[in-house]
Amino acid sequence: MKKLCLLVCMSLGLSTSVMAEGDAEAGKAKSAVCAACHGPDGNSMIDMNPKIAGQHEKYLVKQLMEFKLASQTGGEEGRNNAVMNGMAAPLSEQDMKDLAAYFSSQTQKAGETPEQYVEAGRALYQGGDESRGITACIACHGPSGKGMGLAGFPTISGQHATYTAAQLKAFRAGQRHNDMNGMMRDIAMKLTDEDIEILSNYIAGLH
Hints:
Layout: H1 2-15, H2 24-30, H3 35-38, H4 57-73, H5 82-88, H6 93-104, H7 118-127, H8 138-141, H9 161-173, H10 183-188, H11 193-204
Helix pairs in contact: 2-6, 4-5, 4-6, 7-11, 9-11
Binding site for heme c 1: 34, 37-38, 84
GO molecular function, one term: electron transfer activity
Pfam family, one: Cytochrom_C
């Protein structure tokens, strides 16, 4: 079942992947404005802001494009975020590709999982919960949380627990709706607050 899900995830992702050919050096020169929230190398020190160092290049381009789309549609389309909409609005497609090339080339700093979340987090991440129809995270994000760049699934390992929890809750509430074919919304709507707390803390130290 997991193998079948993996193949489906890959085929869906490949059909909607964004071609990103950026210049990392040009991206570095353009990244100064990003540093306040994400850190100069993409390792945010603010737990509400994601670490973007080492994130898949195509995924970063996709998110920037969707923030810009949200800015143009009043949040009806794309990924709506008051801060990022404004940041992405003036960016050209080449700017996005250059920034993505730079941040994807950086090394993400590892996070930690508090001991009390390890066992339950591993069980839910690796096995899901068939009784509640919760697909295992490992199916699309891989055993180490590195995702699949070609399929469009992001690296989630090492991410701030606060940020991950906020995104899962946003998917659950339908406030974030830029996920591929509604996959994350479908899964998140079945998660309890406790599930989200466990998963976000487990993922923080996953490597």
